[in-house]
Amino acid sequence: MTTPTGPQGPDTDVSIALHHLAAAQEALQRVRAREVGPETTLLDAYRRLQHDYHELRAQYEKDQQAWRQFKRWWKRRLTEKRERKAKQARTSSPLTSPSKRVLVSPRKSRERILEHRRQVRSMMQEHPSMFKGLGRYATDSTDRPAKTRHHDTPATTHAPDCACCHAYYQAVGRAATTPTTTLTSSSRHRTSDVHDPTPPDYWYVGFPSSTQEAEDEM
């Protein structure tokens, strides 16, 4: 960069300042282009990777420090909780403390169950009304369903005439065909159709008795 020479004056100072400002702008543009532009040499690429590595390493160490602080806080909380439980167990009564419970042997458990059953049986003999209707099959006869209608008895339903269904049947009307024929031919409860007779010798299974042999001879 060359500095203009000549007689000094206000105009000369302004021109020099403008010249320096233009040179600074050019240098700044070159620096920006070098930073933003792609790495042209292997050394620039290595420096860029090294810079990124240092940034990631710093972030990793920061996260590790935060994790160590959380672990210390969590361990401190667990220690306080265990100490509080131990103190509560020491100060509580032996009957309510879980650590002071008495273990019962299987034999003692069976004896207690048998004693309870004997007490229940004695109460059933003394006060049978207390256990009335509590058995497995103790049900009231009124709760049982009604007897099934016989297949020859016509159905007497109140649906077409009841108040809740009258409007529906009045709007829908009677069906043109009834499924009676289809039901009679396919249902397992059919009674009008006559079964076809069995073919000859259908029940003859190949083991004739002495009576059949005698009839054949006759």
TrEMBL record:
Record localization: Nucleus
InterPro entries: Ctp1_C
Comp. bias (Polar residues): 89-99
One Gene Ontology biological process: DNA repair
UniProt superkingdom: Eukaryota
Residues in DNA endonuclease activator Ctp1 C-terminal domain copies: 185-212
Annotated stretches, region: Disordered: 79-109, 178-218
GO cellular component: nucleus
Protein name: DNA endonuclease activator Ctp1 C-terminal domain-containing protein
Phylogenetic classification of the source organism: Eukaryota, Fungi, Dikarya, Basidiomycota, Ustilaginomycotina
